[in-house]
Design brief:
By secondary structure, the protein is an alpha+beta fold. The protein has three domains: 95 residues, no CATH class; 89 residues, no CATH class; 62 residues. The chain is built from nine helices and eight strands. The strands form two sheets. Strands 1-2-3-4 form a four-stranded antiparallel β-sheet. A four-stranded antiparallel β-sheet has the order 5-6-7-8. Helix 1 crosses helix 5, helix 3 packs across helix 6 and helix 5 packs antiparallel against helix 6.
Length: 272
């Protein structure tokens, strides 16, 4: 049973309410880590990407079909208006994510260059690789490099092949000399070229935090402006038209422009 984006969007809408998110913060934050977006619940434009992450989570489990069926069932009930289904889904998700260690590791991806799977350890912020000779056994980047050097493709280069990280939304590579990761900004479709600027993990983490803060601030500003239009500008226009009916001849668009100019001027004076 495939996950229906519209049904999952109904769950997202419930969690987009600050009070609901706070009530289920533990699981909501774990989902934010899975999706790589702090404000995931309000990003309905990305619902397809989130559904894809969950589908890949389920497909990687022996009982994945059953997990997907239960998950979709909760989403269907939530879309149908069931308030209890939200609590039930959150409780179920929290239990499954911890039991299966989804709260600790990202979805495993296949690296074409190394012909092996890798995953991000959320706790240590380091990548782990699956031992090609022992499926299911995960090793550090350094150990994986040693395995490749002993019996796999050459490992003479200082850096590993750049790979795009959907969690950081950056490209990363491993420095075999220092045992550290480096990150470079870019788009998923185009790997960094020789002119790319690589940064250490601390700088990349700081860049991610700054971007998240800027996104939250921009959203708060948009919400404030929307509220001002409804609570200030609309009443102001009504009051002006009531007191001076003749201004109606200016037209709604021109009247809005005048009110905006006056408001901006007075705000500038107050702030200045």
């Amino acid at each position: 049973m495939a996950i229906k984006p519209d049904d999952f969007a109904a769950f997202m809408e419930r969690l987009s309410d600050p009070a609901a998110y706070a009530a289920h913060a533990d699981v909501a934050d774990m989902l934010a880590t899975q999706f790589g977006v702090v404000e995931w619940a309000s990003r309905t434009d990305a619902v397809d990407a989130y559904v894809d992450v969950m589908a890949r989570r389920f497909s990687g489990e022996p009982d994945g079909a059953d997990l997907e069926r239960v998950f979709q069932g909760f989403c269907t009930d939530i879309r149908g208006g069931s308030a209890e289904a939200v609590d039930q889904m959150v409780e179920w998700l929290g239990r499954e994510m911890r039991t299966r260690q989804w709260d600790r590791y990202s979805v495993a991806e296949h690296h074409a260059g190394a012909d092996a799977r890798y995953r991000l350890n959320y706790v240590t912020s380091t990548y782990e690789w699956e031992d090609p000779q022992s499926p299911g056994r995960w090793v550090s980047e350094a150990e994986f490099s040693a395995l490749r050097a002993d019996g796999g493709p050459g490992d003479a280069a200082q850096f590993s092949e750049p790979t795009y990280d959907g969690n950081y939304r950056m490209w990363y590579r491993y420095d075999h000399n220092t045992g550290a990761y480096q990150y470079a900004e870019g788009v998923p479709e185009s790997a960094p070229d020789a002119t790319a600027i690589w940064m250490d993990q601390a700088t990349a983490d700081e860049r991610i935090r700054a971007q998240s803060a800027a996104t939250s601030e921009a959203r708060s500003t948009d919400e404030l402006l929307s509220s001002l239009r409804e609570q200030v500008m609309e009443p102001a226009m009504a009051k002006v038209l009531n007191r001076v009916p003749a201004v109606a001849g200016l037209g709604e668009e021109r009247l809005r422009e005048i009110l905006a100019e006056v408001t901006a001027d007075r705000l500038a004076r107050r702030v200045g």
